[in-house]
Amino acid sequence: MNTPMDTVFIRGLEIPTLIGVAEWERQVEQLVVINLELATDITPAAAGDDLREALDYSVVSKRLREFIGASTFQLIETLAERTAQVILDEFPVRRLRLELVKPRPNSGGHTVGIIIERGAAAE
Ligand SMILES: Nc1nc2c(c(=O)[nH]1)N=C([C@H](O)[C@@H](O)CO)CN2
Protein backbone atom coordinates (compact mmCIF):
# COMPACT_ATOMS: atom_id res chain seq x y z
CA MET A 1 0.00 0.00 0.00
CA ASN A 2 1.17 3.57 -0.66
CA THR A 3 2.34 5.68 2.28
CA PRO A 4 -0.54 7.95 3.29
CA MET A 5 -0.31 11.63 2.37
CA ASP A 6 -1.83 13.51 5.29
CA THR A 7 -1.76 17.21 6.09
CA VAL A 8 -0.60 19.16 9.10
CA PHE A 9 -1.57 22.80 8.71
CA ILE A 10 -0.76 26.16 10.26
CA ARG A 11 -3.12 29.06 9.57
CA GLY A 12 -2.95 32.74 10.37
CA LEU A 13 0.61 32.81 11.66
CA GLU A 14 1.50 36.51 11.86
CA ILE A 15 5.18 37.42 11.64
CA PRO A 16 6.71 40.92 11.56
CA THR A 17 9.43 41.28 8.94
CA LEU A 18 11.19 43.71 6.63
CA ILE A 19 9.62 43.11 3.21
CA GLY A 20 9.01 45.25 0.15
CA VAL A 21 10.47 47.38 -2.59
CA ALA A 22 9.32 50.88 -1.61
CA GLU A 23 11.68 53.06 0.35
CA TRP A 24 9.38 53.17 3.38
CA GLU A 25 9.20 49.37 3.37
CA ARG A 26 12.95 49.20 3.89
CA GLN A 27 12.56 51.23 7.10
CA VAL A 28 9.74 49.54 9.03
CA GLU A 29 8.70 45.97 9.61
CA GLN A 30 5.30 44.81 8.31
CA LEU A 31 3.25 41.83 9.32
CA VAL A 32 3.01 38.93 6.92
CA VAL A 33 0.50 36.16 7.50
CA ILE A 34 1.42 32.56 6.75
CA ASN A 35 -0.98 29.77 5.91
CA LEU A 36 0.83 26.50 5.42
CA GLU A 37 -0.22 22.96 4.49
CA LEU A 38 2.40 20.28 5.05
CA ALA A 39 2.02 16.84 3.48
CA THR A 40 3.31 14.19 5.82
CA ASP A 41 2.47 10.74 7.15
CA ILE A 42 0.66 11.07 10.49
CA THR A 43 0.19 7.33 11.08
CA PRO A 44 3.34 6.71 13.20
CA ALA A 45 2.40 9.55 15.58
CA ALA A 46 -1.21 8.41 15.75
CA ALA A 47 -0.26 4.77 16.33
CA GLY A 48 1.88 5.58 19.34
CA ASP A 49 0.08 8.76 20.43
CA ASP A 50 3.60 10.17 20.52
CA LEU A 51 4.61 13.77 19.75
CA ARG A 52 8.17 12.59 19.04
CA GLU A 53 6.82 10.80 15.96
CA ALA A 54 4.78 13.78 14.83
CA LEU A 55 5.55 16.74 12.61
CA ASP A 56 5.37 19.20 15.52
CA TYR A 57 3.54 22.33 14.31
CA SER A 58 4.96 24.31 17.27
CA VAL A 59 8.52 23.60 16.13
CA VAL A 60 7.65 24.47 12.52
CA SER A 61 5.99 27.73 13.62
CA LYS A 62 9.03 28.67 15.72
CA ARG A 63 11.33 28.06 12.75
CA LEU A 64 9.08 30.18 10.52
CA ARG A 65 9.15 33.04 13.04
CA GLU A 66 12.93 32.77 13.22
CA PHE A 67 13.57 32.63 9.46
CA ILE A 68 10.93 35.09 8.26
CA GLY A 69 11.49 37.45 11.18
CA ALA A 70 15.18 37.79 10.30
CA SER A 71 14.69 38.05 6.53
CA THR A 72 14.95 41.30 4.53
CA PHE A 73 13.78 40.32 1.03
CA GLN A 74 12.20 42.79 -1.36
CA LEU A 75 9.74 40.46 -3.08
CA ILE A 76 7.15 38.20 -1.51
CA GLU A 77 8.11 35.70 -4.24
CA THR A 78 11.61 35.41 -2.81
CA LEU A 79 10.38 35.16 0.76
CA ALA A 80 7.89 32.42 -0.15
CA GLU A 81 10.42 30.41 -2.16
CA ARG A 82 13.13 30.55 0.51
CA THR A 83 10.68 29.76 3.28
CA ALA A 84 9.43 26.70 1.40
CA GLN A 85 13.01 25.51 0.95
CA VAL A 86 13.75 25.84 4.67
CA ILE A 87 10.73 23.70 5.54
CA LEU A 88 11.49 21.02 2.94
CA ASP A 89 15.16 20.87 3.98
CA GLU A 90 14.59 20.70 7.72
CA PHE A 91 11.36 18.77 8.30
CA PRO A 92 9.90 15.43 7.17
CA VAL A 93 7.57 17.10 4.69
CA ARG A 94 7.06 15.69 1.23
CA ARG A 95 5.08 18.52 -0.25
CA LEU A 96 3.80 21.87 0.88
CA ARG A 97 1.40 24.60 -0.05
CA LEU A 98 2.42 27.99 1.27
CA GLU A 99 0.20 31.06 1.22
CA LEU A 100 1.93 34.30 2.19
CA VAL A 101 -0.34 37.30 2.73
CA LYS A 102 0.84 40.91 2.94
CA PRO A 103 -2.10 42.72 4.56
CA ARG A 104 -1.20 46.32 3.54
CA PRO A 105 -3.39 48.00 6.18
CA ASN A 106 -2.96 51.49 4.64
CA SER A 107 -4.18 50.51 1.19
CA GLY A 108 -7.92 50.63 1.76
CA GLY A 109 -8.01 47.23 3.33
CA HIS A 110 -7.20 44.92 0.46
CA THR A 111 -4.61 42.24 0.90
CA VAL A 112 -2.08 40.86 -1.56
CA GLY A 113 -0.07 37.69 -1.48
CA ILE A 114 1.28 34.62 -3.13
CA ILE A 115 0.55 30.90 -3.11
CA ILE A 116 3.16 28.31 -4.01
CA GLU A 117 3.31 24.53 -3.96
CA ARG A 118 6.65 22.81 -3.69
CA GLY A 119 8.02 19.31 -3.12
CA ALA A 120 7.21 15.91 -4.56
CA ALA A 121 4.33 15.71 -7.03
CA ALA A 122 1.08 14.34 -5.63
CA GLU A 123 0.64 10.58 -6.30
N1 LIG B 1 4.36 40.24 -7.41
C1 LIG B 1 4.77 41.23 -6.57
N2 LIG B 1 4.35 42.48 -6.79
C2 LIG B 1 4.76 43.47 -5.96
C3 LIG B 1 5.59 43.20 -4.86
C4 LIG B 1 6.01 41.87 -4.66
O1 LIG B 1 6.75 41.53 -3.70
N3 LIG B 1 5.58 40.91 -5.53
N4 LIG B 1 5.95 44.22 -4.03
C5 LIG B 1 5.56 45.47 -4.22
C6 LIG B 1 5.91 46.57 -3.29
O2 LIG B 1 6.76 46.13 -2.25
C7 LIG B 1 4.62 47.20 -2.75
O3 LIG B 1 4.05 46.35 -1.77
C8 LIG B 1 4.82 48.57 -2.15
O4 LIG B 1 5.35 49.44 -3.09
C9 LIG B 1 4.72 45.84 -5.37
N5 LIG B 1 4.35 44.73 -6.19
UniProtKB/TrEMBL annotation:
Its EC number is 4.1.2.25. One of its GO terms (molecular function) is dihydroneopterin aldolase activity. It is an enzyme of class 4 (lyase). SMART domains: FolB. InterPro entries: Dihydroneopterin_aldolase (IPR006156), FolB_dom (IPR006157), GTP-CH-I_C/QueF (IPR043133). Residues 8-118 form the Dihydroneopterin aldolase/epimerase domain. Keywords: Folate biosynthesis, Lyase. It catalyses: 7,8-dihydroneopterin = 6-hydroxymethyl-7,8-dihydropterin + glycolaldehyde. Pathway: Cofactor biosynthesis; tetrahydrofolate biosynthesis; 2-amino-4-hydroxy-6-hydroxymethyl-7,8-dihydropteridine diphosphate from 7,8-dihydroneopterin triphosphate: step 3/4. CDD domains: DHNA_DHNTPE. Belongs to the DHNA family. PANTHER family: DIHYDRONEOPTERIN ALDOLASE 1-RELATED (PTHR42844). NCBIfam families: folB, folB_dom. Catalyzes the conversion of 7,8-dihydroneopterin to 6-hydroxymethyl-7,8-dihydropterin. This is 7,8-dihydroneopterin aldolase. It comes from Streptomyces roseoverticillatus.
